[in-house]
Design a protein that fits this description.
Blueprint: H1 4-29, H2 37-48, E1 52-53, E2 56-62, E3 65-76, E4 82-92, H3 94-100, E5 105-116, H4 134-142, E6 145-156, E7 162-174, E8 178-189, E9 192-206, E10 209-223, H5 230-236, E11 238-252, E12 255-271, E13 276-291, E14 294-299, E15 304-306, E16 309-310, E17 316-325, E18 333-345, H6 353-359, H7 361-370, E19 373-384, E20 392-402, E21 411-421, E22 424-436, E23 446-460, E24 463-475, E25 478-489, E26 495-504, H8 516-519, H9 521-530, E27 531-545, E28 558-570, E29 579-589, E30 592-602, E31 605-614, E32 621-631, H10 635-640, H11 648-654, E33 655-658, E34 660-670, E35 677-691, E36 696-708, E37 711-714, E38 717-721, E39 724-734, E40 738-749, H12 759-762, E41 765-767, E42 769-780, E43 786-794, E44 798-801, E45 807-808, E46 815-823, E47 826-833, E48 837-845, E49 849-857, E50 871-875, E51 879-880, H13 881-889, H14 896-899, E52 900-901, E53 906-915, E54 918-929, E55 933-939, E56 943-950, E57 955-964, H15 966-972, E58 996-1005, E59 1008-1020, E60 1023-1032, E61 1036-1047, E62 1050-1061, H16 1064-1070, E63 1077-1078, E64 1082-1090, ...
């Protein structure tokens, strides 16, 4: 022990010397190290097994130890990669290395290191991490630290892409079992740069393996696609995935064990089926762990926005498990995707559907078809990716909605719970206020008010079973409770069992609930249209059997629905009126439907004992039988609303029944839309039948007829027609192009009892007429109608007292034929009476029956052709117009225009017409309508003129010639002539009278020629006004104007004008009147009025003024002719006779005068005058006084002043010497006023006009006069 210090000192000294020698040697050797480079490289290759090339090695010794500078290192790796280093600087701290017993470097820096490996990061299946070898031992154990500058590492990523990791700066520190690194890395690939990351690693070296530790990464806007696995890339097909993130990774045993990711900002995008989808995150955190051989990705808070819609706050966990046994007969293996989610909005994750389709095509198909929406409270899915039929699930949700997928109906407001798997599961549901589309089953979405059900299914190697229990659904108009089971055994027939109770408050909605895939389209079509209303409380549905064999024609299954329907509306066939207020029992039994009801209303009639059966759905035929009772008028309108509208209904429209009808009805109705067959019998008793084409009604119709659709055939029927008995039979036939109706009639009628003829005519005919008739009607199916009516008879037993030519004696044969041939627009009416009377006419069926053309001939042997123009042409025998007028005045022609419209163009020809007391010979009357009215031309022996009846203007009568002499006709019949043709007229009504402008060029009235007669007559209310009145005989001219006020009880006539002429006697002689006034011109002004008709002057009310002026003339014989009566009015004739008697020497037989002037006024029938003056040659006569025209009494005074020389009259003076006569005339004029001084005779005339009393009052000599 004493020598130990020495030994130690010696040893230490020795070591120091050795070290000193070694250091000295190194100082000398290291600068020459490059010369030994080949040997050194060979030694390294033999040691590592990797060929290495170096271009230069530089070394020297420093105080702390050697330094080394190596250039252009190049090494090839076994996997085909390489390692290239541009420069390596090394500074070894020898003293620290000795102190720590491991290499301690002051500097170990690699410049531009390029490391390329072809081994993927997941290439090792052993899970042992980075295996220790000489190369890793050098860097991880021999070096305490090293630096990388501007280096690159190229490797295969998890996605299979080659990526390059650029390392601008990295510092690596190695401990004994701990390895740390810090620096920057920049990942890039063939797609470009993927971002710069800050990296920190803290790894453990356990058992020689670098397999445990943590890695921290931080990056902004980095592309994470290269870090995704190849499977994720293929199935997700991300186009972009860039995030700003921080991550913490944990390695355990060389494998990625777990990690935490903080996605600050960023997102991903991928292409969907129709649009680009975007996913963005905001401070999303996620935790990734490895579960056994799988991975789990958990998001505790879903801060995710997809396609602009934020997800609701919830949790999401995705897990992938590697291949494992998923069951099945072959122990099928499949990797599995597990999903756990809470508070999930299905609509918000629509963008993930394309990814789901990649993961599971079946799931993608279902997702696309259903388009689910709503929120899932909790969801758990285990999806074997290669065996999706083994998917397991568990979920709870509220207000879920989706569209129909195959036999899964769509739904909304769907809440419930799902548990189990695709093979064996249970679904508990509750719905409210929802619609469930089920297109292949029901024709309309089920409108669920409230519903609940429990469904269980089982699918295995034996088949499929679906059970529905506790199904309680209250939907639109229906409430159903029941259960069902559907079985589909493998290799065997399916089976469906249903038992349900049903109630409805509106049977018209039943079509919503017929399962068309089970019941068949034809049946559903029929029932959907048939059941239109009703209520049922206890309907029962029973179903059992193979649904593919429905409707069980051979009883291999059972389908029955028994529905006691009340207050129903049932349309047994489309196009037919629905049966209403019906209590009917519907029994759906397999392939048939049996219905029955005690009574039902068919329109306005009642059907009893009604049965409606469809014995076999395949035959598609409905058979209806019923007894019909009701009013006949309701039968036609009922069939108008059926497919028999053009057949049976058309018949009943033309032959309209009324009254109670009893019938038996059988309907054979094809359900495929073919024509319905209607058969039956109809019994009539005291009914009525309206024959529409004839617009006539048969009453008391009794008998029976049968029908087969539109083919009707009657037995002999009896009826009353126009109050006459008639026998009828009819048939109808459905022809190829038209519907045909044939009616036969016969009877023996009394026209006077038909009540269709005017009363005056009925009173004029007696007897009966036997006749036969045939009616044929064709009703084309497209439109329109054609008909023919033929009536024949004989008027032999008929007696007529009508005016000629319609007068007839009983026993005289007179065959009559009437023929009608027409359509809905017009008809031709032709016929004959006897052998010479024929007529032809054409009628138009407008809104009012219109006669277009007609012609009647009385001397023809055949039917005459119609006139070319519209109008009536009548060729009549001699007629007594007065008798026909009298008949029309009794109302024969009244109301004719109410039922028919007749043309205005009328031509009437007759050889003789007795009218107005005169016979008009060879008369032709032609009436033609014009633009402003109607023109009537009359031509004959007695008349030639035109009457223009203008619209809204006075009528114009232009008569060229008129001869009217009723007196001649009266004298020819030994009848006294009337004073006036209007003498018997008591009341005239101006209603309907037109204004008239009368112009008669040559008029003969009552055998007297009047010449020209003009006058304008206007009507206003009850007043007739005459203006421009003129009578011009050629010898005299009379003008007139006035009015006639024709108020009932207050008639008034006023008339004024003048009468002028050159010779009064010539004018009077023209009318056959002699007058004592000869050779005198005349001018009479009159203005008269009285209170009566114009032809009845009333003397008591007569008022007016008369101004008379006669020129030079002679009064020859005062008692001559009617003109003398005018002189008698003032007793002027009696005065002249007295003067002749008293002064026979002065007054000769003739009395010449120069003028006669008089002004008279009449008041209340009394004529007054005070200036009547006769300026005679023999004497002047002045008269004054009054004449009472009512009592015909005179009260007159007359003054007579004899002429200067009475022995020579003025006339004589003119005869002897006209000059002397002129002087005498002048003297008488001048001295006339002095006659009272010469000699005056005064007379007073009184008494009756017919026998006046003339008394001389004064005879005064001239000398007295002078006093």
């Amino acid at each position: 022990m004493r020598r130990l210090p020495g030994i130690l000192l010696l040893t230490g000294a020795t070591l120091v010397v050795i070290v000193a020698l070694l250091v000295s040697g190194l100082r000398l050797v290291l600068p020459h190290l490059d010369s030994w480079r080949p040997q050194l490289l060979a030694k390294i290759e033999s040691t590592t097994g990797v060929p290495v090339n170096v271009s230069q090695i530089s070394a020297n010794w420093q105080n702390f130890g050697p330094t080394l500078d190596v250039r252009d290192i190049n090494a090839s790796l076994k996997d085909g990669g390489h390692l290239k280093i541009k420069r390596v600087t090394l500074a070894l701290d020898v003293w620290q290395s000795l102190l720590h017993l491991r290499w301690q470097f002051r500097d170990l820096t690699f410049y531009q290191l390029q490391f390329l490996t072809n081994t993927p990061l997941s290439g090792g299946d052993s899970g042992q991490g980075l295996e220790a070898n000489r190369f890793s031992d050098l860097f991880l154990r021999q070096f305490d630290h090293f630096d990388l500058r501007d280096s690159e590492v190229s490797f295969i990523t998890l996605s299979g892409q080659r990526a390059e990791l650029a390392i601008p700066q990295l510092t690596w520190l190695n401990g004994k079992e701990r390895h740390r690194a810090e620096g920057q890395v920049n990942l890039s690939s063939l797609n470009g740069q993927h971002g710069v990351m800050q990296v920190r690693m803290d790894l453990r070296d356990d058992d020689g393996l670098l397999n445990n530790g943590k890695v921290w990464l931080q990056a902004d806007d980095v592309d994470v696609k290269p870090w995704l696995g190849d499977w994720l890339q293929q199935n997700m097909q991300l186009e972009t995935a860039r995030f700003s993130l921080e991550g913490w990774l944990t390695l355990t045993k060389g494998e990625f064990a777990s990690g935490d990711i903080w996605l600050k900002q960023g997102g991903a995008s991928w292409k969907g089926e129709k649009q680009q989808h975007q996913l963005s995150v905001d401070n999303l955190t996620a935790h990734v762990t490895q579960e056994k051989e799988g991975w789990q990705f958990a998001i505790p808070d879903t801060r995710i926005t997809m396609d602009g819609k934020p997800w609701p706050r919830g949790a999401l966990t995705l897990a992938w498990m590697p291949e494992q046994d998923v069951g099945g007969t072959a122990s099928k293996r499949s990797d599995e995707l597990r999903i756990r989610a809470s508070n999930l909005d299905l609509a918000a994750i629509e963008g993930l559907r394309s990814m789901a389709a990649k993961l599971s095509p079946d799931l993608g198909e279902i997702w696309l078809a259903t388009q689910p929406s709503g929120r899932i409270d909790a969801l758990a899915l285990d999806i074997p990716l290669q065996a999706t039929e083994k998917t397991r699930f568990q979920a709870t949700w509220k207000d879920l909605a989706w569209k129909q997928w195959k036999l899964l109906p769509g739904a909304e407001h769907f809440s419930g719970k799902l548990e189990g798997s695709v093979e064996n599961g249970r679904l508990t549901v509750d719905m409210h206020d929802a619609k469930m589309p089920y297109e292949t089953v029901f024709r309309a979405p089920l409108e669920i008010e409230q519903g609940s059900a429990v469904l269980n299914w089982l699918r295995n190697d034996k088949g499929f079973q679906l059970d529905g229990r506790h199904i309680d659904v209250k939907a639109k108009a229906v409430h159903a409770r029941g259960d069902f089971r559907y079985l589909q055994p493998v290799g065997d027939e399916p089976w469906l069992g249903i038992l349900a109770g049903i109630s409805t408050d509106d049977g018209s909605q039943a079509w919503r609930y017929f399962p068309e895939n089970l019941m068949g389209k034809a049946l559903v079509d029929y029932l959907s249209g048939a059941i239109q209303g009703g209520q049922a409380d206890n309907a029962t549905l029973v179903y059992g059997g193979n649904p593919h064999l429905f409707p069980y024609k051979h009883n291999e299954g059972q389908f029955q629905v028994l529905v006691p329907l009340h207050n129903a509306t049932f349309a047994f066939q489309p196009g037919w009126p629905a049966l209403k207020d019906l209590d009917i029992e519907l029994n759906f039994l397999n392939d048939g439907l049996w219905m029955k009801s005690d009574s039902v209303a068919l329109g306005g009639v009642t059907a009893s004992n009604l049965t409606a059966n469809i014995p076999d759905y395949s035959k598609e035929k409905l058979l209806i039988d019923a007894d019909i009772n009701g009013p006949g008028k309701a039968v036609g309108p009922y069939f108008e609303e059926t497919p028999l509208k053009d057949s049976l209904a058309a018949t009943l429209q033309q032959l309209q029944l009324d009254g109670d009808v009893n019938a038996r009805l059988h309907l054979d109705i094809p359900l495929d839309g073919e024509m319905t067959t209607a058969k039956g019998d109809v019994r009539l008793k005291n009914n009525s039948l309206f024959i529409k084409p004839l617009d006539s009604t048969l009453k008391n119709l009794s008998g029976q007829f049968s029908f087969d659709n539109g083919n009707l055939k009657s037995e002999p029927l009896t009826a009353s027609w126009f109050n006459q008995p008639v026998n009828i039979d009819f048939t109808t036939t459905e022809g190829e192009k038209a519907y045909q109706v044939a009616v036969n009639l016969d009877g023996n009628w009394q026209p006077a009892r038909m009540e269709v003829l005017p009363k005056p005519i009925e009173a004029s005919v007696q007897g009966a007429v036997a006749w036969q008739g045939k009616v044929a009607i064709d009703l084309p199916y497209h439109a329109g109608a054609q008909y023919k009516v033929d009536i024949t008879g004989d008027l032999k037993n008929l007696q007529s007292q009508l005016p000629a030519p319609l007068d007839k004696q009983a026993g005289q044969p007179l065959p009559v034929k009437l023929n009608v041939d027409g359509n809905l627009n017009s008809f031709a009416l032709t016929g004959s009476a006897g052998g010479t009377n024929h007529f032809n006419s054409r009628w138009l069926l407008n809104r009012k029956l219109t006669l277009d053309k007609a012609i009647w001939t009385t001397d023809s042997r055949s039917t005459p052709p119609l006139p070319e123009q519209a109008g009536i042409e009548l060729n009549l025998p001699p007629m007594d117009g007065a008798e026909w007028l009298a008949l029309f005045q009794k109302g024969v022609g009244q109301n004719v225009d109410e039922t028919a419209q007749f043309p205005q163009a009328i031509t009437v020809r007759t050889p003789s017409l007795m009218l107005g007391g005169q016979q008009w010979n060879n008369l032709s009357l032609v009436s033609q309508p014009g633009a402003n009215g109607t023109k009537v031309e009359a031509q004959g022996r007695e008349i030639n003129g035109t009457l223009t009846m203008r619209n809204h203007a006075p009528w114009q009568a232009a008569i060229r010639y008129l001869y009217y002499n009723p007196a001649s006709a009266a004298s020819g019949k030994d009848k006294p002539a009337e004073a006036s043709p209007l003498s018997n007229v008591s009341r005239v009504d101006f209603s309907g009278w037109p204004d008239l402008q009368l112009r008669c060029a040559e008029c003969w009235l009552w055998g007297q020629k009047y010449g020209r007669i003009d006058g304008d007559f206007t009507i206003q209310a009850n007043t007739l006004t005459l203006s421009g009145g003129l009578v011009d005989t050629g010898f005299g001219r009379m003008t007139a104007a006035g009015e006639w006020v024709n108020n009932p009880g207050e008639q008034r006539t006023s008339l004024k004008g003048d009468i002028k002429g050159n010779k009064l006697d010539a004018a009077a002689n023209f009318f056959g009147i002699s007058t004592p006034l000869r050779g005198s011109s005349f001018d009479v002004d009159y203005d008269l009025h009285w209170r009566d008709a114009p032809w009845k002057p009333d003397e008591a009310s007569l008022n007016g003024i008369l101004k008379t002026r006669f020129g030079k003339g002679e009064i020859a014989d005062v008692s001559t002719g009617r003109a003398g009566q005018i002189l008698r009015l003032l007793s002027f004739d009696a005065l002249l006779r007295k003067l002749r008697f008293d002064f026979s020497d002065t007054f000769s037989e003739g009395f010449y005068y120069d003028s006669i002037r008089s002004t008279a006024w009449i008041k209340d029938g009394v004529l007054h005058t005070d200036d009547t003056l006769v300026d005679g040659l023999e004497a002047d006569i002045a008269m004054k006084g009054s004449v009472n025209l009512v009592r015909r009494e005179l009260d007159m005074e007359a003054v007579v002043a004899p002429e200067i020389s009475a022995s020579v009259g003025v006339a004589a003076a003119f005869v002897v010497n006209p000059i002397v006569g002129a002087a005498v005339f002048a003297a008488s004029k001048v001295l006339g006023p002095l006659w009272s001084k010469v000699s005056i005779l005064r007379y007073r005339i009184t008494g009756p006009v017919d026998k006046p009393q003339i008394n001389e009052v004064l005879r005064q000599p001239r000398k007295d006069a002078q006093q």
